[in-house]
Each structure stands twice: as structure tokens, then as C-alpha cells.
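Sanity check

After download, print the first record. It should look like this:
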Amino acid sequence: MELSINSIEELLSDESFLSWYFKTDPQAEQAWNNRIARDPVQKKLVDEAVQLLQNVVVKEQPVDEQRKKLAETRLIHTIGSTDDGQPAAKVITMRSRSVKWWAAAAIIFLSSLGIWQYSRTTNILSTHTAFGETRQQVLPDGSLVMLNANTTLDYRNWKEGSDREVWVKGEAFFHVKKTARKTKFIVHTGHFDVVVTGTQFNVINRNNRNNVLLTEGSVTIRGNEQEVHMKPGEYVEFNNKVIQKKEINKTPVLAWMEHKFYFEKTPMKEAAALITEVFGTKVTLAGEAVAADSISCIMPTDNLDILVQSLQALSKYDVERTDKEILIRKK
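Expected C-alpha cells:
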């Protein structure tokens, strides 16, 4: 007898559905094909689940064992419990380790992002990266976006011919696809909008910092009754309520896409703020002498342990780390 499935969350934790999606069990494939063919309500739910799975491109690195085991335990507990809260007589384990991993990943994804619960009530899709994580995602129009750590991207499933709008809080690099109708792609930040049709650029909207680096094509920046047109290689920032163009070295701006901090005579106060933004760990500078200092080095953005070791290797600092804080003193 088929169990009733009424939500995206239930689908993504269902063994047979994941076997159908990843084509690992011919019997599950046949059963779900029959179910979809005769039940339009289930077909609609399946279409939404498939769209979610296809829209998310997971960063190519393994999920740590602790998170996989936790998610797997939660999954087995869900499968092995009846509606009245009593344990079922038998817990059925998954036949495919691949399916088991994806089911666990789906639970991690849903519980950490809440993406479909949010979208079904507001018609907005939301993606968020954790501290120390980057992620590439394909948007509904085929455009690509890479999100830096601790970044939120909100967007809608756009209708054909309408403007494509997204909202960024954090940092992201966009490769915008041109459409046949040349519809606008608009990135909303805290203080201005970036308007394009097809191009590549980096945008930051974080802690009162708003800036754009254009690497290809052309964009128009609109905000605070200003309109600024940009050419490749140009950089603009919002400063003192004004959109301004500046000459910069683009390498430090784009280094995060290679999982690096590129510090080039960077004030320690600024470097500490960037580390906190990316890893969510407080960095305390002991004394004005440290805060007024500057560093020039390359450090990782995806491994806090190695970053702390890199700081400790700088001969002029003593670096102490606890679970919640990194303390930096002058030697």
C-alpha cells in the first residue's frame, strides 16, 4: 500500500522517491512512474521536488561524517516511526549508499535553509551559505551565481519576458545569461541596484559595504538618484551616500572564488572583520598597535584551522584560539 506524501520535505526523505530520481532501483522507478501518471496532485509535488534538486549545485567537497551520521539517524528515525509516535516493528534501510547519502543531504539542506517552506508561502526562493562555505547555483534562466560564505540570495521563478530580479546579502559573483528578449537582470543590494542583460560581475552587500567589480560586459548602477555606467575592469562602491568609481587591484576582490583571502597591505582591523564574516568566529585584536598594523599574505577561506596556523606563522603576533574567539596580540 502506498503511503500518502503531502510535502516536499516528505518526498526528499522518501527512499523510493530518491531511488526513482537517481535511477538506482528499477522497481522504484516503475512504481513512481505509475504513481505520477495516475495522480496529478503527486505529479505536481514531484515536479517541484525535481526542480529543487536540479536548481541546487552542491560544492564539490565531502560532507563531514558527523553531519552525515546525524542526518542519517534522523532519517531512519523518521522512517521507523508510526504516526502515533510508537516505533515500527522494522526499520527498512536503504539499498543504495548513494541514495542514503542524498537523503541525508536533503534533510541537512531542508533543515538548514528552509528553502521550500519559504518559497511556498511567499513565492520567493532563498539560498544561504554557511560560514566557511561557497556554493555555485544555476538560476531559473540558466544564469550562474557563485555565493561566498555567509551569503543569502533571494529570487523568484521569473515569468518569460519579465525582469529577472535577485536580492543579495553577502557576496556573490554572477555570470548572467542573455535572453532572447534581452530582459533585464537586476541585483538589489542595500544601497543600489545593478542592472544588466548579460555579463559577469562581483557584488558585495555586507555590513554597510556595497560595491561592484565588473569583469565582462556592461552594467548600470542605480541608486540614491544616481546612475553610473560601468565598463569591464571598473569598480564602484557606495561611500558617504554616493556611488563612486575607484581604481583597485581586482585580484583581492575575486580571490574568494579560489577559496583564498588575498591580503595586500590590508589593515588588521579590516582583515579581522573579513575573517569574522566568512567563518563566523570573533577575531579580537589586543591593543591599538595590532589594529593599526597591516598584513600582506594569502590565507584560506575554507579551512579555519589552516588560517589560524597561518596567522600563528606570522612572527610578529601571538595567536590564541578558543571555540568562540581568535585573539591576536603583538609579541
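If your output differs, re-run the checksum step. Summary of this record's structure: The radius of gyration is 23 Å.
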